[in-house]
Write a structure and sequence with these properties.
Order of helices and strands: EHEHHEHEHH
Helix content: 40-55%
Structural class: alpha/beta
CATH superfamily: Response regulator
Shape: globular
Largest sheet: 4 strands, parallel
Radius of gyration: 15 Å
Number of domains: 1
Strand content: 5-15%
CATH topology: Rossmann fold
Mean pLDDT: 95
Strand order of the largest sheet: 2-1-3-4
Low-confidence stretches: none
């Protein structure tokens, strides 16, 4: 039986081919396992629409037990942001940019680290790095996404 709770979560990074994509896949799996109705998506502040997920991002997901899903980057827009209840950025500057550019959505835009650990930390962009660095960044995204999910479960009394 699925939980009646519904929420839409949007992850934001720069190009939407690495970090926000990995966070999306992780959160989708967590929600499925708990039978929570979360709609999860991702986008980028500087994304070019239609670029596939970066191979190292897909490798990190697969190596850590996540199913690869087809993904093509998408850029942010006012219409996209309007659809989501919670917008989680990978970097402080992305949060600040979105709040400045789209002030009416400011109350629902925070960094992933703020939700996960009540502190402002950037999750570095691995785009030009070697795979071992992707793996480290993946682990940080996984840790923060799991903690953020647990906080959402607690906030809305959904922990079973």
């Amino acid at each position: 039986m699925r939980n009646k709770f519904e929420m839409k979560v949007l992850f934001i990074c720069t190009g939407n081919t690495c970090r926000s994509y990995m966070a999306q896949v992780i959160l989708e799996k967590l929600a499925r396992e708990k039978k929570i109705d979360l709609e999860v998506n991702s986008a980028g502040t500087q994304a070019i629409d239609g670029i596939p997920a970066y191979p190292y991002a897909k490798m990190a997901l697969k190596k850590n037990g996540y199913e690869e899903k087809k993904h093509y980057s998408k850029s942010i827009s006012e219409l996209l942001l309007e659809e989501y209840d919670l917008i989680l950025t990978m970097e402080i500057k992305q949060r600040d940019f979105l709040k400045f550019t789209f002030p009416k959505f400011g109350s629902k835009i925070i960094t992933l680290s703020e939700l996960a650990v009540n502190s402002e930390f950037d999750i570095d962009d691995p785009i030009t790095l070697e795979y071992n660095e992707y793996e480290k960044i993946f682990k940080k995204i996984e840790e923060y996404t799991q903690k953020a999910f647990k906080r959402l479960l607690n906030k809305y009394n959904l922990e079973s």
